[in-house]
Design goal:
Bound molecules: adenosine-5'-triphosphate, magnesium ion
Largest sheet: 3 strands, parallel
Number of strands: 5
Strand content: 5-15%
Strand order of the largest sheet: 1-2-3
Structural class: mainly alpha
Length: about 350
């Protein structure tokens, strides 16, 4: 069986370091591993509209921002397909057929959707489109026959939902669809990077992000005002690691070599953590170290982003061509699905013959 990846992001803002450790960094590694037959990366504008329908301008203005973030991180359109969701209308048609296979109560049980409904204040009136987005996500994944979906931990319920839809479709109509698997980072800190405010998840919608495009001074400002341990007041106080965002970010980004370069008095992160817990290590010193670690990773991304920004017409063409290519693939899957469902009347020579043979 071919190995195919589909994953993506909502163009609700520029991408942040949570996306980077949760999915983007991995995508680039997978792209360069040469192990996959095809990689599709989708800018999920239609999904973004499900909770931003009153602000299409926000979605529009972030299409190229997200594309720039992709290219800056090292995604290479020579090797993969980057496309825009709404430019592939077949995805909407597939969603429509999948809606028959899912109950309302099953959608309402999805823990990520539940949390997002609460966060957006939709409790009293949930737009149908928003509640439906896990189904639309199942179409996105299956339209490209994806076997692997690299995502952050918040997306696991969506992949589970997709697997259920695939099993149901195949059991009713025949073995047409591919059951995908989620690929989540083995590093717990990367699965759901918290916001700089210590909130459970760094999220564009919560304004607690360090963006890949942030200038060095902005990153430094954000790092220096980050949430740590509120009881660690004096340097001599013992500090807590649980819920301490600065250490979570170090877990996600720091390697032993960083200590040799920037903090040689410690051998590794374990030694730094032990000192912090024992007392005698101030937050400022740890934050300055984190800032240098982040800067080492983010500076080249920021520079590449500026270079691609100068070639924005080329970036636009990448999306246009990628969307055309994605459309051909989704149309092929949809044809197979409609044939399996026996609703391909005008491509099916048996259709009239069956009528005449009644
Ligand atoms: P929004 O608030 O609009 O939903 P978001 O910041 O949650 O935006 P998405 O576009 O929904 O970003 O997510 C894109 C991908 O990035 C998904 O695979 C998601 O799991 C992953 N991701 C998002 N935020 C984080 C995070 N804080 N840590 C790890 N992965 C994340
Ligand atoms: Mg999200």
């Amino acid at each position: 069986m071919k190995k195919i990846i589909l994953t993506g992001d909502r163009p609700t803002g520029r991408l942040h370091i949570g996306h980077y450790v949760g999915s983007l960094r991995r995508r680039v590694e997978l792209q360069n591993s040469g192990e996959y037959d095809h990689i599709y990366i989708m800018i999920a504008d239609a999904q973004a509209l499900t909770d931003n329908f009153e602000h299409p301008e926000k979605v529009r203005s972030n299409i190229l921002e997200v594309a720039l973030d992709y290219l800056a991180c090292g995604l290479d359109p020579e090797k993969i397909t980057i496309f825009v969701q709404s430019a592939v209308p077949e995805l909407t048609e597939i969603t429509f057929y999948y809606m028959n296979l899912v109950t309302l109560s099953r959608l309402q049980r999805n823990p990520t959707v539940k949390a997002e409904i609460q966060m957006r204040g939709f409790e009293t009136s949930i737009p149908v489109g928003f509640l439906n987005y896990p189904i639309s996500q199942a179409s996105d994944i299956t339209a490209f026959k994806a076997t692997t979906v690299p995502v952050g931990e918040d997306q696991l319920p969506m992949i589970e939902q997709t697997r259920e839809i695939v099993r149901k479709f195949n059991s009713i109509y025949g073995d047409v669809l591919t059951e995908p698997e989620a690929l989540v980072s083995s590093n717990i800190a990367c699965q759901r990077l918290p916001g700089t405010d210590g909130k459970a998840k760094m999220s564009k919608s919560l304004c607690n992000c360090i963006y890949l495009a942030d200038e060095a001074d902005e990153v430094q400002k954000k790092v220096m005002s980050m949430y740590t341990d509120p009881d660690h007041i004096k340097v001599t106080d013992p500090g807590k690691l649980e819920g301490n965002t600065v250490f979570t970010y170090l877990d996600a980004f720091c390697r032993d070599e960083h200590f040799a370069s920037y903090l040689p008095e410690y051998e590794n992160l374990d030694a730094l953590k032990a000192h912090y817990q024992a007392g005698g290590l101030g937050d400022v010193k740890v934050k300055k170290f984190l800032n240098r670690v982040l800067e080492e990773e983010l500076a080249p991304i920021r520079e590449r982003r500026k270079e691609y920004e100068k070639r924005i017409e080329w970036v636009y063409e990448v999306l246009r061509k990628g969307s055309e290519e994605a459309r051909r693939e989704a149309a092929d899957t949809l044809d197979g699905m409609k044939a399996a469902m026996k609703i391909n009347y005008f491509e099916d020579s048996d259709f009239l013959r069956d009528w005449n043979a009644r």
